[in-house]
User: Fold Spermidine/putrescine ABC transporter from Mesorhizobium hungaricum.
Amino acid sequence: MTAAAEGSPPLVAGGIRRKTLLQSESAQGLALISPTFLYALILLVVPILVVFAHSFWTQHYLTIDHTFTLENYRIALTEPIYLDLLWRSLYVSLMVSLFTVVLAYPIAYFISFHGGRHKGLWLFLITIPFWTSYLLRVMSWKVILGYNGVLNSGLMGLGLISEPSTALLYNTSAVVITLTHAWAAFAILPIFVSLEKVDRTLIEAAKDLGDGPLRSFLRVTLPLSAPGVISALLIVMIPTVGDYVTPKLVGGKDGVMIANAIQAQFGKAANWPLGAALSVTTMVVVSLMAGAAVFLIRTAARLAR
Assistant:
């Protein structure tokens, strides 16, 4: 008892010193991340709050009435033109995400499992198209899909059509095709990283237990690479909803998306509060759709195991 009582003060003192050390390390960590946090707060959170505040105000010519109102959200959620644009944007975003992932997965799988020592070279080749401007790539697809384009020339050479056609241009399909190509590399890379982390011994064990190539892929490789698939879907889905350059160049009247309407409200229409309400509504809907996609993919991966 005496020895224990005599040993208590050093233990207490050691605990106090350890606690003080941890507090000082925490303070140093906070000091290190504070500039970055403030930088992100100023550039990301503050603009969103400004847009959110504008959505409850009213535009009167060149002045803004700061009286609280929900009229902008009523217009955004009830006007058929804005609802149609929103659903079209969600449809295009979903189609682009699905097509991009479906096309990107085999490429990422080939590089990861069969690339050997040339994996770096394959990844380098994938990034080559991104050395050119995004606008130039969109204009290239406008040439391919449009009048006197490469596709028309090929079809005419094969005798399948007699006159050039613009059927593949200025519609929703043209927007989906162009965006799928534009975002392909952004889907390949996260899927490749996820496939690289898959333990090959698990695949060999599945084969030793009687699984064929397809069954081992569905039960081992695909579920383990689900994080990469989810990342690819989110990376492609979220930005494509807000794309307004591609629909304007290759979509025409039938390919206009919600971002074009938002850009018009902040431009010629000069109705910032309505544009802000459309922006907030789109952000909320896209967040819900992205959350639903993540939930469904994780559920499917869990059931596949």
Q: What stands out?
A: The two ends are 57 Å apart (CA to CA).
